Amino acid sequence: MAGIVAGLATSHVPAIGVAIDMGKTQEPYWKPLFDGYEPARQWLAEFDPDVIILVYNDHGTAFSLEVIPTFAIGVASEFPPADEGWGPRPVPAVKGYPGLAWHLAESLILDEFDMTIVNEMAVDHGLTVPLSITCGEPDEWPIPVIPLAVNVVQYPPPTGKRCFDLGRSIRSAVEAYEEDLRVVVFGTGGMSHQLHGERAGIINEDFDRRFLKDLTANPQRLIDLPHIDYVREAGAEGIEMVMWLIMRGALNDEVEEVYRHYHVPASNTATGLIILENRP
Amino acid sequence: MTGTSEFEDIPGTYLFNKDRCHEGYHLNMFCMSLIKSENRDAFRADEATYLDKWPLTEEQRRCVLERDWLGMIKVGGNIYYTSKLGATDGRSFQYLAGAMSGLTQEEYRDMMVSGGRSIDGNRSKLEKD
Lengths: 280, 129
Description:
- The complex is a heterodimer of chains A (280) and B (129).
- With 280 residues, chain A is of the alpha/beta class.
- Chain A contains nine helices and eleven strands.
- In chain A, helix 1 packs across helix 4 (125-135).
- Chain B is mainly alpha-helical.
- Chain B is globular.
- Classes of the chains: A alpha/beta (280), B mainly alpha (129).
- At the A-B interface, strand 9, helix 6 and helix 8 of A face helix 1, helix 6, helix 7, helix 8 and strand 1 of B.
- Strand 9 (202-203) of chain A pairs parallel with strand 1 of chain B, so a sheet runs across the interface.
């Protein structure tokens, strides 16, 4: 049977992808950030999961404002990298895992999470930057990915509780899947940042560090956190962090934090990365 | 409760709520069109004519043509869309953020390297006054 074995959360700042693509990771501005990613790469390579369920948000790429699905799951065999205005990132196409993806879509909907099912979509930096952070620059991505896109651009995004509960439902669905698969869930986005308005550039390290700490041992505080607290304290775009709660909800109550990294800045953003393994 | 008035108390912040989405829909969809290379070329060739395809308000047109980045946000632009216009111009998110907050790209970059804009004094308009 399949099972979720670990979770990883990370920021997905587009400039991180640019730094990788332009070969700038060893420059003084970027080196401390990428040094902190190295243990995560080693962890993922050694942990060697069979599938990643990657929770991210589309930034006006596949969906735009024409259609705004709150939760969407990609069931295709392949997802091409998107052109976000600069041309597509020079990274491989993302390989899907249609069997488990369709099983998840069916299970989640029957469990009353009304997913949008997506057969074709380009994936933007929200999905490809976390893969670059954790897998480096391979010719082919080493692990198939099931994209799970969450609306956090148009207010209101789903609540933290709804995200956590979706994670719970994902866990149940994965555990009911017959193939023997070790699944890792990625939550992405954040940490504190604001990209627009006169308040652009806001960073709140105290908020971020408490968020990282409570994700492991006190997720209930985060489940209860209202949107206004994210926007006020972590910046308007910091609300992406609700997506980390989908990852947390998919794990056991008891988890072991095996790695944590925090760095300011990457472009406009405070970056965090955390790895949690399920305790048996 | 679906109102977002409490968010308006946050200084320098324009929550992308139902009103802004409604007001800025065509502005944002113009920006969205720029994810296609051929559209970027057509826009660069004749900006004013290209803009005629979208029913923008006069103020929205002005903001686009003058690259008034904060102005675009105030008339319903969303940063993930206006940044596509920025990308068409070869401008980074950092440049746009500096422009919206009255800093040069260098000043803004230095602020971020020094730990970013402080949250203290920036939580609430009431707190600020």
